[in-house]
Amino acid sequence: MGTVLRLSSMLCMMTTVFVGVAFPLIVTGIARVLFADAFDLSRIDVDRSLMAATMADAAAGAGHDDAAKGEALFAANCSACHQASGEGLPGAFPSLRGNDTVNRPDPTAQILVVLYGLQGVRVGGVVYPTAMPAFGVTLSDADVAGLINHERNAWGNHGAPVIAAMVNEQRAHGKMIR
Is the pTM of this model over 0.85? Predict the structure, then answer.
């Protein structure tokens, strides 16, 4: 009876380790191999004319989404993981403060991440296996732009502004990166 109990206990522990650790790693590894091109943020198409128009609108003070609404959207949708401070949680959720993608002049990668989510990304040499959900199914183009503008202007960040038309263009192209 004692041997059966020990074997049962070992089997239970091995199952827990496999389901809790090995299986997610295997699935993440397979997904990264199958969708390697989808996560290559250097291969993003950019509509330069739309970016130029956005910069002109921003310089003229037009096209800005309400800052308070962007902050509220971040608080409701993002702060549980990325924290109100934008610092994230080490090893689980990357910091948005000083984040290269957030501070890039071209906001396309950030728009795509917010619209379609992301998992298994490397930030500052750390791979973050926790999945970020896709907010494109619940937020409008204007809401996504407002949320991103909050991230691009908070915590000392200095990313270029985003307008709803830029979000709409990326949404029209379809899932993730071409």
Answer: no
